[in-house]
Specification:
Blueprint lengths: L3 E2 L4 E3 L8 E2 L1 E7 L7 E5 L2 E5 L5 E5 L7 E6 L7 E5 L2 E5 L1 E8 L7 E12 L1 E5 L3 E5 L5 E5 L7 E6 L9 E5 L2 E5 L5 E5 L7 E6 L5 E7 L2 E6 L3 E6 L7 E7 L3 E8 L2 E7 L2 E6 L7 E6 L7 E5 L2 E5 L5 E6 L5 E2 L12 E2 L2 E3 L4 E3 L5 E4 L2 E2 L2 E8 L4 E8 L2
Parallel strand pairs: 1-24, 2-24
Antiparallel strand pairs: 3-28, 4-31, 5-6, 6-7, 7-8, 9-10, 10-11, 11-12, 13-14, 14-15, 15-16, 17-18, 18-19, 19-20, 21-22, 22-23, 23-24, 25-26, 26-27, 27-28, 29-30, 30-31, 32-33, 33-39, 34-35, 35-36, 37-38, 38-39
């Protein structure tokens, strides 16, 4: 299969020294039992694959107070979750589990299918078919039209021997993150006979993939998210890349913006309006290891490992918030900003240079400690 490359620009993004966030703020948090890995949002609920904790159902009707309303304790290790109607599909390491969530407070297993290898990723297709990335057993297409008795109806195995790490679907086309084999694009128009359409080599191990519009966003183990144009599925082409300080694990996308869950770097917000030149718009450094991201309107739910699920808001115009202190004295409002190491400049949330730091007339740079969370917060304080 021919592989084409386009000239691309690599944007390097690293957490800014001392910074906690830029143009993002946390609005809600809910603990989970174990390690929140991946999640899906449907209506007022977030469905969280919680590794040893199974499936957690969290109400997000009030984003400032998300709360657990139901749990299914699966016997395996819950890596990923998808939804289809009244069912949640759980990739539970050695099995696909079909879980009824018709009553979110009482999720119950309706059926299961033992997979030939580890089930690492799952997505729904045509409401009654689960596409399961089964590591060294390829892609498995499992019908759950009868939830009590799911059955395999087709499979695809990348050649040469490939490891299917993750799957994403758009229309009748599935995109697969195939480890050392990069990206594979497969037609599933006939689910009983999946057919490879195209392939794209990635310079590093392809761990995860998200599809939005004409682009696939591939999380690779060299700490890069690679952007591939898949508008011609028979000739996919790399068009951009973004390198993070830590490992990107999942991507949510909407309106030329991607939200990257990166282990060790929290949530990163990037503009991909020009895919060859991604631009960082904001970030929120979570206390856990961020494995998953899912959109809920203008908010992002983040699966934050052993720190549960967080709800983060991205505000393009920047953040103004009161400066909380215990002295009782009047304090000005604060705006989160960033310090550019090496040149001593302060940059506010709009990206404008506020002047040489750390202190000058009009602005100064503070590092404060939030005693409740035990972490440093960097702020630009606007003085009278």
């Amino acid at each position: 299969m021919p592989v084409r490359f386009a000239l691309l620009t690599l944007v390097i993004i690293t957490p800014v020294a001392f910074a906690d966030s830029l143009n993002c703020r946390q609005v809600g948090w809910c603990p989970t039992y174990d390690e929140a890995m991946k999640l899906r949002v449907v209506g007022n609920y977030a469905y969280v694959a919680d590794f040893r904790g199974g499936l957690i159902v969290i109400s997000i009707a009030d984003p400032t107070r998300p709360c657990e309303v139901g749990r299914y304790d699966s016997p395996g290790f819950a890596y990923d979750v998808a939804t289809a109607g009244n069912y949640a599909l759980l990739a539970d390491y050695g099995a696909l589990r079909i879980i009824s969530v018709a009553d979110p407070a009482n999720p119950t297993e309706a059926g299961s299918y033992s997979t030939p290898s580890y089930a690492l990723s799952v997505t729904a297709f045509r409401d009654t078919i689960a596409l399961v990335a089964c590591s060294n057993a390829g892609l498995r297409l499992i019908s759950f039209a009868n939830p009590a008795s799911p059955r395999e109806i087709g499979f695809y195995y990348p050649s040469p021997a490939g490891f299917v790490q993750a799957v994403a679907v758009q229309g009748d086309v599935a995109c697969l993150a195939c480890g050392d084999q990069g990206l594979r694009i497969v037609s599933i128009a006939d689910p009983t006979q999946p057919e490879e359409l195209g392939a794209l080599a990635t310079p590093a191990y392809a761990q995860n993939v998200t599809v939005a519009g004409r682009y696939a966003y591939i999380s690779c183990l060299d700490q890069q998210v690679r952007i591939a144009d898949i508008s011609n599925p028979r000739a996919p082409m790399l068009v951009g890349a973004c390198q993070l300080e830590n490992q990107p694990y999942d991507v949510a996308a909407a309106d030329s913006i991607i939200y990257v869950a990166a282990t060790g770097s929290g949530l990163r917000v990037l503009s991909v309006a020009r895919p060859a030149q991604p631009v960082e718009l904001g970030y929120y450094n979570t206390p856990g290891l961020s494995y998953g991201a899912a959109l809920m309107g203008n908010l992002v739910c983040v699966a934050d490992g052993n720190q549960g699920m967080r709800i983060v808001e991205y505000l393009p115009s920047g953040i103004q918030e009161p400066d909380h202190n215990t002295s009782g004295s009047a304090r000005p409002s604060v705006q989160r900003g960033r310090f550019l190491p090496g040149n001593g400049l302060l940059v506010d949330a709009t990206g404008r240079i506020a002047g040489p730091g750390p202190v000058q007339t009009g602005v100064h740079f503070l590092i404060e400690t939030d005693a409740g969370r035990g972490r440093r917060i960097t702020r630009l304080v606007v003085l009278p």
